[in-house]
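Predict structure. Chain length: 415.
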Amino acid sequence: MLLGPSCGEYLRASYSVDPGADRCAGPRWYWPRSVYIHIPFCAHHCCYCDFAVVTGAVRFVDAYLDALEREIALTLPEPVWVETIYIGGGTPSFLTTKQLSRLLAIVQRYFRFHRQEVEYTLEANPTDVSDEKLQILADYGVNRLSLGAQSFDADTLRFLERNHTPATIEKAVSLALQYIPNVSLDLIFAVPGQNLEKWQRDLQQALALGVHHLSAYSLTVEPRTALWTRIQRGLVPPPDQESDRELYAYTIEALSSAGWEHYEISNFARPGFQSRHNLVYWAGEAYFGFGLGAARYVCGTRQTNTRSFRQYLEALANNFLPVAESETLRPRERAVETAALQLRRRSGITADQFEIQTGFSLWSLLGRVIDRYQARGWLEADGKTVRLTAEGIFYADQICADCIAAGLTPSRNPS
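Prediction complete.
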């Protein structure tokens, strides 16, 4: 569904703020302190990517920025205070310097933040990094750059259809560190043809560059991507689960030995450089989201925008909000989803805080699941917290799915 002006009026009424305060009213899991903005443009749609992206659409960038600003204006009655900003994609760095300046000016117009306190992230491709663009980012307060490196191995980069070289990554990081105080790299492991030796070199080279954060993702084959099609046709072997576990285990060991914090299943940081924005998602807290295919979670309602580029532009040209799906979670649904998200954190779930946030006792809601996986050695619980063990982290998806299934069955876990 695409939501019209009447829904826009409802949203504006719901998203009320205190204009005299530096922070919006309401707890963090109800009212956002974070905003995500999606820029869908890419030079090439990589074979493994399932995000809302568009290619060959350079001529539509300015029209998209018009629509993006209109979406924000239709939703928010006045500027709101935020503590984290994340501009992702797609490839935000694909924009020209003029378009990038305009995008950041839009953010500055509708969102208030303290420069010394905000975490302000922009995603970039190594090939797009330049002195001019980095200076624009710094001028507008961007203080964190997330680079889509993926690998330092030329063969792996070719398989993933990345258009940069290992040397390009090194140059981009070196340049970025002159302007941006916090640089993160995305890396992908368990790629067909990649072995432990290649992955060891990837991590060694990443650490040698002096970055502050690493997101290490196992290659996931999403349905209907180009990679999925090739695997279905037998043209490419599927990722090997044994190799996946071996490389992931090495990642945890190597980065922990180097003094990095493994603070979420796929994320590692030097002390003090955890991604505050992503921690909002994993805490089950509220966030704004704007742009093609963007999701938001505000006042207990989760919404997702259309992934159709044409529909997105047309809806906003007619003052309609481009929402494709909207769902207000029931209390139990919100509670079990919060538990599943918080288990992704290495710190796990704090029972007292969980009950304050959701209104449910963690033990009443999920006690049987916790007991089952504690007996297997996959969860550890001390009455105050529940977290994945070193072995349990390899089964996180299974445990989280079981938590959701059990928590949504009142007959098994009465509230």
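Summary: Residues 3-10, 13-24, 411-415 have pLDDT under 50 and may be disordered.
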